[in-house]
Amino acid sequence: MDDRRTVRVSKYLSRHLRHQPERIGLSPDAGGWVEIDALIAAAAAHGFRFSREELDHVVVANDKQRFAIEGRRIRASQGHSIEVDLGLPPATPPAYLYHGTVAAHLDAIRAQGLRPMTRHAVHLSADRETATRVGARRGRPVVLAVDAGAMHHDGHVFHVSANGVWLTAAVPPRYLRFPGAR
Question: Mind telling me which PANTHER family this protein's record contains (predicted)?
Fold first, then answer.
């Protein structure tokens, strides 16, 4: 399977497991899981064919481990805009986590903090390198440090997904450290 096909299948899976399952007639359970055979059949019925082998390749080869397979079911690891309960237990975060963004969003972030927008949680990275890659998807990246230790101490709840993405409901501005700020 070539890289272009891998990306194409991955994007299709993201769209239909995270955001629009109903578009192809899928009904994920409360945890976001769908039967793999039903997914493959629904995709084919809507003009996008892929094999179980291609699906397995995408799940294993995805550098961000966006998908999880459990038995004969699959789901996206996080990033849903549909209602799901990933069943992740609360976790104690490291002292600092990181968020990649672009300069165009900084004024809003300074005023309102980090909000989940269309997702269920704010996504944070455990290291600056990952946050830089995330921010670079939208342009020249800006990495913000999040005082996760202080947030946790103040009662904010964190979860960590199967692929290592840290999730929290929101990050108020007082917990953010902007580049160049003292």
Answer: PUTATIVE PHOSPHOTRANSFERASE, TRNA 2'-PHOSPHOTRANSFERASE 1
